[in-house]
Amino acid sequence: MSKMTDRRAQIRTPPDRWHSSLTEISPNKILVRGYPLDEMMGRLGFAEAVYLLLMGELPTPAIGRMLNAVLVSSIDHGVTPPSTLAARNVATTGAPLKDCVAAGILAFGPHHGGDIESCMRFLDSGLSRTRAGMTVQRAAEAIVGECAAANEVPPGFGHRFHTRDPRAARLFQMVLELELEGEHVRLIRACERALEAYKEQFERPLPVNVDGAIAAISADLGFAYELGNAIFLISRLPGLIAHAHEERTRQAPMRQIDPKDNDYDGAQQRRLPEGRK
After folding, report:
1. pTM over 0.85
2. Residue 83: its pLDDT value, please?
3. Helix axes 61-73, 225-250, angle to 10 degrees
4. Would you say 209 and 158 are in contact if contact means Cβ atoms under 8 Å apart?
5. How far is CA 239 from CA 71, 73, 94, 251, 267, in A?
6. Which residue, 57, 76, 138, 145, has fewest beta-carbon neighbours within 10 Å?
7. Are 105 and 98 in contact, with CB atoms under 8 Å apart?
8. The 3-state secondary structure of 25-67, one letter per residue
9. What does each C-alpha distance from 109 to 118, 125, 227, 245 come to in angstroms?
């Protein structure tokens, strides 16, 4: 067979079929990881459905509640984050909402949203030492010390605005209440203690921030590194939508946005209704 004939035979040969284990679609039926989507509706919360889609199985009630809290924790953080400013800047042009939100998503990076994956890898480097015989506290001191020697703040610690991140504190409280504390959470709390020795070097408090809390909890729940960042993306998406919509409906087109020149005029602090746990 000539080379040309052989090449034509290859072109006619149908490619190998590829596979997906996520969602099966057939007439009048949608199965997500094997569960009918219409049966999930009204019976699973959004966080539980996200867990099912990403992890392949239904979460326990405790894990579902924990992931719901994680998704709420980063839903928005005011007008100053780079992703929010990107979404608002695009909104000033009159661009469609989807374009504004896409711009916000593209603004996520190693220092904004991407810190979760970095922190998960940082913690795993410490856990590899505990498996080699180190105590959790000694492993924490070792990996924190390496960062300090390079004059780098460990990923998942410190915040440009908060000296104590209330979101991280609440997530850690819940992980204890729901009995979901694992080796990653224990290690990051040990790292927080180890960082006390470097307060003078870094000249600011370095408590665990919300990214660090999400990283430790996500790792203990079995999420892969990349999915840690995905959880932040899912969480922040409603906030980007809300900011882009507000910019388009409340502000003049093509304005120059100064993140420091804003006043909040929304609802004042209020309590959740009784019955909301």
Report:
1. yes
2. 96
3. 50
4. yes
5. 11, 11, 18, 17, 16
6. 57
7. no
8. EECCEEEECCEEHHHHCCCCCHHHHHHHHHHCCCCCHHHHHHH
9. 11, 22, 14, 23
Q: How far apart are the first and last CA of the chain?
A: 74
Q: Which regions of the chain are under pLDDT 70?
A: 1-14, 277
Q: 92 is written with which tokens?
A: 């000033």
Two structure tokens written together for 222:
């079995």
Give the pLDDT of residue 87. Answer: 98
pLDDT confidence of residue 16 = 86
Structure-block tokens of residue 197: 């020795």
pLDDT at residue number 13: 58
Spatial distance between the Cα atoms of 127 and 257, rounded to a whole number of angstroms: 44
Residue whose tokens read 């660090």:
212
The pair of structure tokens assigned to 67 is 């992931």
SS3 assignment for 71-108: HHHCCCCCCCCHHHHHHHHHHCCCCCHHHHHHHHHHCC
In a 13 Å sphere around the CA of 124, the CA atoms on its Cβ side amount to: 14
Instruction: Give the whole-angstrom CA distance, residue 238 versus residue 225.
Output: 23
